[in-house]
Amino acid sequence: MSVRVRFAPSPTGQLHVGNVRTALYNWLFARQHRGAFILRIEDTDPERSRREYEVQILDDLRWLGLDWDEGPDVGGDFGPYRQSERLALYRDYATRLLEAGWAYRCFCTEEELERERAQARAEDRPYRYSGRCRQLSEREVRERAKAGLPYTLRFRVRPGPIVWEDVVRGPIRWEAEVIGDFVILKSDGWPVYNFAVVVDDLLMRITHVIRGDGHLSNTPRQLLLYEALGATPPVFAHLSTILGADGTKLSKRHGATALREFREQGYLPEALFNFLALLGWAPPHEVGELLSREHLLELFALEKVSKAPAIFDLQKLKWMNRAYLKAKPLEDLVSAVAPYLQQAGRVPTPLDEATRAWLQRVVEAVLTHVEHLSQIVEETRIIFEYDLGTALTYPEVREVLEDAGALDVLRRMERELADVPVITTEAFREAAARVREQTGRKGRALFHPLRIALTGRPSGPELDKLVPIYEIGATLPLPRPIPSVRDRLRQFLEWAERVRAESPSR
RNA sequence: GCCGCUAUGGUGUAAGUGGUUAACACGCAGGCCUCUCAAGCCUGAGAGUGCGGGUUCAAGCCCCGCUAGCGGCACCA
Questions:
Q1: d(CA A186, CA A202)
Q2: Strand B–CB A310 distance below 7 A
Q3: Which nt sits closest to A187, CA to C1'?
Q4: For A122-132, what is the mean pLDDT?
Q5: CB-CB contact of A161 with A173 (8 Å)
Q6: Reduced 3-state DSSP string for A288-354
Q7: A82: helix, coil or strand?
Q8: C1' nearest to CA of A184: which nucleotide?
Q9: Is the C-beta of residue A152 closer than 7 Å to nucleic acid chain B?
Q10: What residue ranges of chain A are covered by domains with CATH 3.40.50.620?
């Protein structure tokens, strides 16, 4: 029988990275076995389910690079793929269980059940439904139903052990005694989760259920249902939870948790894919950890997935994302980064060719500092902003202002560059070499004042890269024009005079 | 409270059937490079495998007990 697996998110919010990892493992497993990957929407909670979330979830999964063979948008032979559209199916199966005696009508009211629960709590005893309606005679049932009393359908739990072999956990044993007769159909006719999944997985011919370990304790109930329906249950694989840095469940407290958020911050899908795959599983040492989709497909092994919960290490994600950024063609990076810069009002919105070409230099210059794309805005301030006012906050800038030798370097540099038609990196270097001869200053003493004057900051990309960026940038139709190298030197020197005049040597 | 799951450096994971100095990657520290910060390269520190017993010539791997964390115990999913 060919492999069929499913990912079944509920459209009640954004896709959590923990669920994404589950989807990923399902996808890898399906593709490895040339099986089918199915998407099913678990929207049996009409209160919280929203169609927008469903749309967003599908979109995010697609962005990550996952594709599915059957699902609400693409259809398939075992649909519909939204639980809310399968209600008749659940009712049908529930009726079958009722008629076969596996289930019974329960007329207990909310209040009665609450009383039972309170009682159990008071006696410090685990709560389990008493089974009061289990013994109702046929006549009683008929009378109550005729009286219009609402009822649920409860499953008659049989005694004895429930065992299964979990692909990641190994053998698991559960005593049925700890499970009370549970509801399978609510009084409003909607199925309860545990029942719906079994009916769906059964009808969709799911062979392997790969899901989060939160479902571990649902498994015994589901197994009981398969038993009652006379069906062979699928193979189960329960994945451990993903935790935050402090060892508690990964939540908004830890920062971004939704795939969408990482996407918006400019993490690359291939990096997230790689990173998530490594949360709970590791490839052999020899191949390293930077692995393409194809490579992961080749190496991944569900049986080798770790039982222990994994901690989401943002630092490692950043490292990995940078590795993928570095490997990406510059033109692609420019396209990826442009929206962030446009939104910040730094480059024009239909991007002209000249600016686009220039952006390649910009991206190349700041790339080593960028961990995720949205940082481009911050990292390019040194290019788009030349603000001598804030420059004063850096002690290094003050040092230059108070160093006559440094100011002399700048003045001479200005003179050397005065007649240069185009200040290229080479022209800049040559001019600097002449200043070195004139002043005897070299290395840091020579270049650091230049850096400060040109950028207004003590650190940043290499001047060799910055110089052409400033020169070309000054000629572009940017929303906020940037000054050329010459302009910067002039402005800085004028500003230096002014500042020195205002605050005489201290 | 009851039931279940888990436990190797700061983090993710390695270490076929028990066998020498517990490995790889991220991070961290230092160095090299260099006009600066990064990047890159090199070097290094960091765990004796949750705790306590046992079996054995030998235990991260086997057995027993305990602790902690997580999950579940719904007419939520």
A1: 20
A2: yes
A3: B75
A4: 80
A5: yes
A6: CCCCCHHHHHHHCCHHHCCCCCEECCHHHHHHHHHHHHHHCCHHHHHHHHHHHHHHCCCCCCCCCHH
A7: strand
A8: B75
A9: yes
A10: 1-72+240-327
Q: Give the SS3 label for residue A212.
A: strand
CATH architecture observed for domain A1-72+240-327: 3-Layer(aba) Sandwich (3.40)
A297: pLDDT strictly greater than 90? yes
Mean pLDDT of A231-248: 88
Candidate list A146, A186, A252, A326, residue with the active-site label: A252
**C-alpha distance from residue A382 to each of A337, A390, A391 (Å):** 16, 12, 11
Question: How many other CB atoms are found less than 10 A from the CB of residue A81?
Answer: 23
- Choose between A229 and A140: higher pLDDT: A229
Is nucleic acid strand B under 7 Å from A18's C-beta? no
pLDDT number for residue A107: 87
CATH 1.10.10.350 occupies which residues in chain A?
Answer: 385-502
Mean pLDDT comparison of A63-72, A179-188, A252-261, highest-scoring range: A63-72
Reading the block at residue A311, the tokens are 């901690």
- Given a cut of 50, whether residue A491 has pLDDT beyond it is yes
Question: Which CATH class, in words, describes the domain spanning A385-502?
Answer: mainly alpha
Residues A97, A184 contacting (CB under 8 angstroms): yes
As a whole number, the mean pLDDT across chain A is 90
